[in-house]
User: Fold this.
Amino acid sequence: MIEVLKLLRSFTLCVCMLLLANVRCYGQSFRTDTIGFSVFFKQGRSEIDMNYRGNGSNLLSFADTITALDQDPLANVKYVYVEGAASPEGASDYNQRLSERRTQSIREWLIQNTTLDIGQIRTQGKGVDWDGLAAIVSQTDWEYSDTITSIITNTPLWITRGGKVVDGRKKRLMELDGGKPWRWMLDSIYPELRQGGADVKCYVVRVPDPQVFRDTVTVTVNTTDTVYLGEPEDPREVREPIFAVRTNLILPLMNIGVEVPIGNRWSVGADWYYTWAWRKWFKELNMTNCLQLLGGGLDVRYWFGSRHTPEVRNRQNRLWGHAVGAYVYGGYYDFEYDFKGYQGEFSNIGLDYMYSARLGKRYGLRMELSLGIGYIHSKAREYNVYTAGGNAFRTGVVKNVNWIGPTKATISLVVPINRRVTYEHEEIQ
Assistant:
């Protein structure tokens, strides 16, 4: 019995040692390295100049590195992340578009000159390079350095109240001490940021040789002084509206409309009305009243608030919130009351305000409220009806109708049609 216990103890120790060895090997089996460099652009430009500030040597060296990694059986390029930026001065929308065009230029160069495929390259245009500005200012001994860094770090990009932008990071920087620090940065710091561009980070997964223990191989590329904070988080799936269908509950089941977003700030819509009613308002009138309207219209709207800024993450907020718009409507009508009526065509132009609120689930039904003020013109042709529900006989009287005032009111139930889109974590934060 004692011999059996000794054998069992020896077997257990061997199994434990093997398990510990396997755990140690597994913990060391994979390693993720980051290769990074910067591409610089001339002020306001998004085309790559290979002769500008070492762009050519950096890009060609990176292409050689990708080729070497492809030939290395123990290395795998997980993906390349390209992040573009611009300097703080200038319009935010322009800076956003400029940073996006710069990332696209680098993306196209990488696809054409390396073995990377389109699925391995992720891009983001982040607009203003606030991190770069904070890094440069923090290295100076200027009296405003700490204050500027604090504003950049702690002040939101936009501060809203009641859906309206009332303050923000850039506004506070421009108003600091009467604009003196802002003018200093325009002269001393922004010239460098204007010529900035995009950072390229390549994430490589390395597997050690199972037979030979070796140190991690480091691939060197020409780099600028850039601090990397680690690998971006996993992508996230969101739903964004591609269009919405609506019906005005004031005239239920007698109209339908559609609204289509154009970017995050703008949208266009169209509505169609076929309102028809012929009924006994009072028993003794016996079908002597008519309300008939056939018409349609187009509108264009601008949406307010920080939730509609051009950032990719705000695509999921389209067609939601406060908006103002302009509309044009036209059509035909036939209105009769007590054997007398008017027929004619009408045209209507005006401005409106709209508020769209979500009902229940985040991506579910919505309710739209709108009120419009405009101008209506029509030539109304008078007629008489001599029998209930009979033919109309024109009297020859034509009235010119011109109206300025409220011309539109809606309480609409809206059904957004969404699509699922996967964005990188950096794009939706």
Q: What stands out?
A: Residues 2-27 form the longest helix (26 residues).
